[in-house]
């Protein structure tokens, strides 16, 4: 289907944080929207790279050896196998692009793991 996606409209459809929603698919990758606030869990993805594009707010991507602030209109790619932890001091709207096999908590399974994603 060749429909445009309005990100503001998609973000308005949900309130919960750390629960990605699928808004499109490109080849073997999902395009997801997610709201972040607070600290996530340290994790890595064995086989998948992840792209985090900040649409609103700011994101601190923590790595074991450094931290990177990602501002509105910027993105960061976390290579597969790299341990990381997203942190958003205030509410942050993020677009994710990652392979369809990607589990949000990577190698960790806990209460924040979302195995079945909603499509909006």
Describe this protein's structure.
With 120 residues, this protein is mainly β. It contains 1 helix and 8 strands, in the order H-E-E-E-E-E-E-E-E. The chain has one helix spanning 7-11; strands at 21-26, 29-39, 50-56, 59-63, 67-70, 75-78, 84-99, 118-119. Strands 1, 2, 3, 4, 5, 6, 7 and 8 form an 8-stranded mixed beta sheet that branches. Strand 1 (21-26) and strand 2 (29-39) form a beta hairpin. It is globular and about 40 Å long.
List keywords for this structure.
8 strands, 120 residues, mainly beta, globular, 46% strand, eight-stranded mixed β-sheet
| Tally of separate helices | 1
Low-confidence stretches: none
Give a count of the beta strands, DSSP E runs of length 2 or more.
Answer: 8
User: Strand share of the residues?
Assistant: over 45%
Describe the largest sheet. 8 strands, mixed
Give the CA-based shape: globular
Distance N to C terminus: 14 Å
Q: Provide the gyration radius in Å.
A: 13 Å
Structural class: mainly beta
Oligomer: single chain
- Whole-number mean pLDDT: 92
Order of helices and strands: HEEEEEEEE
**What helical percentage do the residues reach?**
under 10%
Structural topology:
Blueprint: H1 7-11, E1 21-26, E2 29-39, E3 50-56, E4 59-63, E5 67-70, E6 75-78, E7 84-99, E8 118-119
Parallel strand pairs: 1-8
Antiparallel strand pairs: 1-2, 2-7, 3-6, 3-7, 4-5, 4-7
The gist of it:
Helix content is 4%, strand content 46%. The protein has 120 residues and is mainly beta.
């Amino acid at each position: 289907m060749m429909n445009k996606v309005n990100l503001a409209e998609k973000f308005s459809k949900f309130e919960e944080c750390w629960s990605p929603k699928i808004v499109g698919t490109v080849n073997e990758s999902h395009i997801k929207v997610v709201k972040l606030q607070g600290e996530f869990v340290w994790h890595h993805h064995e086989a998948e790279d992840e792209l985090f594009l900040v649409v609103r707010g700011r994101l601190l991507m923590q790595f074991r050896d450094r931290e990177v602030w990602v501002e509105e209109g910027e993105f960061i790619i976390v290579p597969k196998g790299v341990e990381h932890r997203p942190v958003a001091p205030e509410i942050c709207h993020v677009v994710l692009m990652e392979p369809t096999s990607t589990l949000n908590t990577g190698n960790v399974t806990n209460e924040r793991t979302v195995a079945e994603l909603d499509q909006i």
